[in-house]
Amino acid sequence: MSKKSGADGRDDFERGLDMRRATLGEDWVRRATEGATSFTAEFQDFITRYAWQEVWTRPGLPHETRRLLVLGMTMGLARWEEFELHCRAAVRGGVAIEAIKETLLQGAIYCGVPAANTAFKITQQILVGEGLAPLPEPLSPERRASRQQTFSRPQLSLVLQGEGDKTPIVFSHALGLDLHLWDDAAAHFASLGHPTLRYDQRGHGRSARPAGPYTLDQLVADAVRLIEEWDRGPVVFVGLSLGGMVGQGLALARPDLLRGLVLAHTTAQYPSEAQPAWEQRIAAVEAGGMPAVVEQILQRYLGDDASLPGLRSQLRETLLAQDAASYVAAAQAVRSVNYLGRLAALRCPTLVLAGGRDQGATPAMAEAMAGRIARSRLALLPDVAHLGVQENPHEFLGLLSDFLAGLGE
Q1: Which phi-psi region, left, alpha or beta, contains residue 341 (left: φ > 0; alpha: ψ -120 to 50)?
Q2: How far apart are CA 204 and CA 341, in angstroms?
Q3: What does the alpha-carbon distance between residue 126 and residue 118 come to, in Å, rounded to a whole number?
């Protein structure tokens, strides 16, 4: 037989049609196949069997990677009809817009700027047509994001955004992540007149990776020199998870640098029974790198929520890019956090945020912190796990806006 049949009785053409539909959509495939003529039928049969069954179903690459490769290739060859078809299908199929953007940026280097310009134009039109029009992000001085680094060492990578006269805000991220956790939040508050700074903690993102283990005192000292070099203080310091631990240490060591403090999805102390879990995670990373723990961390950060596949994919990529030795070095600092008995000394206004589904930094831990900080307010995001700014940005940013308003902003 010239057309192989599988155990289910279907031949390569039928299986290829399944993949073609999954990639391009039912309507397109119906038009291409049911509209075939005696002149085009053999060609449609050929590409369905060979391209869609033999190649697109091969196990060597994830399906999303194949989609992005096609965008890059059709962009490089200026095959714009094909590019538009696959780009629209990718958007409708749930491929992260950020991944598409990165593919086109990569293509600008290897395919040329004119090709990238056309590809961005077509993609933007597709996003508008799909009801996903990107938010305005003018490159005016008061809105443009500027990537810089500290003068002091170890050098920290940072992004400044906003030139307004309202209280400056510093954003500090969670273990294993980077400053991009705060991109949307920083852009939002920059647009409202707040100068913002988001940074990669040592060992993360584009910041330096000195040998570990790290201590919270070192990470706090990093935050101190960061704010002093920026010379815009006192600031509102917004820290999430590890960033929240740094925020506590900063408020204790240098209260003069803070106008307000936000402690999101964090803790001031782990119970002794949590230490074996930290030991196991550190040992796993030392033995197998970040792939050994990435799914465990995603479960910790997002829980079982399957409604944000794009976010889960983005976080997975960030975690897998994390340097394993630096993760271990920073994890040693996190596991040793011990500020709970000192929080009564804090005097700056503080917002404590907790996720109702957070298994690591529980609402009870948040209550323990808020109960010891005189000028604190506790807020619960009931449907959120560990990354409220990403899981429920509307509510998270609303609470942060209310807190800033309470400071007189």
Answers
A1: alpha
A2: 29
A3: 12
For each successive 10 residues of the chain (409 residues), what is the average pLDDT?
56 89 88 90 91 90 94 96 95 91 96 96 96 81 87 96 94 98 95 96 97 96 97 96 98 98 98 94 97 96 82 92 98 97 96 96 97 97 96 97 89
Distance of CA 186 to the CA centre of its chain: 13
The span from the CA of 266 to the CA of 239, in Å, is 8
Contact in structure between 86 and 78 (CB atoms under 8 Å): no
- For the entire predicted model, the pTM comes to 0.81
Q: What are residue 11's DSSP bridge partners? A: 5
Question: Please, what is the Cα angle at 233 between 389 and 189, to 5 degrees?
Answer: 30
User: What CA–CA distance (Å, rounded) separates 160 from 197?
Assistant: 5
Q: What is the arrangement of strands in the sheet containing 169-172, beginning at the earlier edge strand?
A: 146-149, 157-161, 196-199, 169-172, 235-240, 258-264, 350-355, 376-381
Distance CA 158, CA 148 (A): 5
Tokens of 346: 């804090």
Whole-angstrom distance, CA of residue 209 vs CA of residue 345: 32
